[in-house]
Amino acid sequence: MNVAVVTIGDELLAGRTADTNATWLCEQLDDRGVDVERVTTVPDRV
C-alpha cells in the first residue's frame, strides 16, 4: 500500500516548528509495511 501524509500548519511551512508528527507517523507506517510516497505540508487556511 502506498500513502501520502498531509500535515497542516503555517509554523511548519515557515520552519519555526519541526514536523515531528509526520516523522513519527511515517516511521509507524513503515514498520507496518506501508510505503509513504510523499509528505506534503499545507497552510492553516487553504
UniProtKB/TrEMBL annotation:
Pfam families noted in UniProt: MoCF_biosynth (PF00994)
Top-level division of the source organism's lineage: Archaea
Cited InterPro entries: CinA, MoaB/Mog-like_dom_sf, MoaB/Mog_dom
Sequence ranges assigned to domain MoaB/Mog in this UniProt record: 4-45
UniProt name for this protein: Molybdopterin-binding protein
Annotated organism of origin: Natrinema soli
